Amino acid sequence: MVHEKLRTFIEGFRREAHPMAIMCGIVGALSAFYHNSLDINNEEHRRRTALRLIAKMPTLAAMSYKYARGEPFVYPRNDLDYAENFLHMMFATPCEDYEISPVIARAMDRILLLHADHEQNASTSTVRMAGSTGANPYACVAAGIAALWGPAHGGANEAVLNMLDEIGHERNLDKFVAKAKDRDDPFRLMGFGHRVYKSYDPRAKVMQQTCDEVLNELGVEDNPTLRMAQRLEKIALEDSYFVEKRLYPNVDFYSGIILKAIGIPVEMFTVIFATGRTPGWIAHWNEMIGGAYRLGRPRQLYQGHQRRDFVPVGTLLCRLPSRVWSFASRNTAPRASASGIHGCKSALIRPFERSISSNMAGCSPQSPVQRDGDSEFSLSRLPQTEAPGTGRVTNRFGIRDQSFSRVIRLEVSQRLPPLACTSA
After folding, report:
1. What domains sit in the chain, N to C, each tagged with a CATH number?
2. Among all residues, which ones are annotated catalytic?
3. Taking the model in full, what pTM does it have?
4. Nearest-CA neighbor of 242 among 178, 162, 185?
């Protein structure tokens, strides 16, 4: 169980929030609920925190799922094991209990177990790096969750389902397999091969058997997505191209199919990955903190400019893409208003004062390019607007930073009659 106040905490998220965003927030917030055992140099505190994290992760994961669906949270039961409890909290409701299939429970147990640890991967390294600063373990695991959220790491089984959606139908498989073989084609088959395992992923053998058991248990042979995945698996295991390159189906391929068959939405796949990986994160963190360790500080080799010209801060501020500067008109000469940043005019506006004035007076064409160090700027006329009943029009100009493809918008106000210029 988790602290009851966490319900209030979760309700602060929007209903459409991604479950991984919720997990990042609530796992990091656990340190505020269990702050009396955060002495990382105390072995008993570390043990207690490890148990809390491992025990509460399925509960938090199920809560993030229920919250997104607008369903009431379901409490864990002490008579169920780890995987059974997770399925119970995911799919049971107060008005109807969830009958847990032993086959499905065993499949979930294997998914969590096979994802528990996998050497120095990106998220584990992130947990260790954060832990090397002396941060509390809840913050370290939250950092690991954030790293796992990246599609290049934890989103692999989700990418499998997205790939199958892109293929669309069994009749398209041959075409997409040919695209995967073409080195010049950007399409890639997801869930095949592995950076670490240059032959067959040993975890995939277990998951392949589990996948067959789950599909037989649920009787979902007619599901087009799962049927397409099974045929793609057959192609990869028999096609000489994939066999020679050892691009066998990996654990992500089979786990994605299993989770899809169970009825777990794609956005929850990485959350389940994080739940299974938590014991591994905690083991790495505890091993490091329990021994001699140093602050993680990777070395960086600078390969940039040897010499760069000084650029006034006003120029840098004016290059911000979303910043809008307002200019008041006095005899058609633009000047920075009190709400602007002084220095912006001298840094960027002054080279264009003549062009702006001539534009307003006689509709001259776009100004020539102005250069400032390594950057190039050009001025163009934007559509004119009139404020009803005020007797004023606003002439708008855009200064485009050619180097960064950004536009700074200038607004120059003047009395009627308005200029008869068309937008540039």
Report:
1. 5-289 (1.10.580.10), 315-415 (no CATH)
2. 153, 194, 252
3. 0.69
4. 178
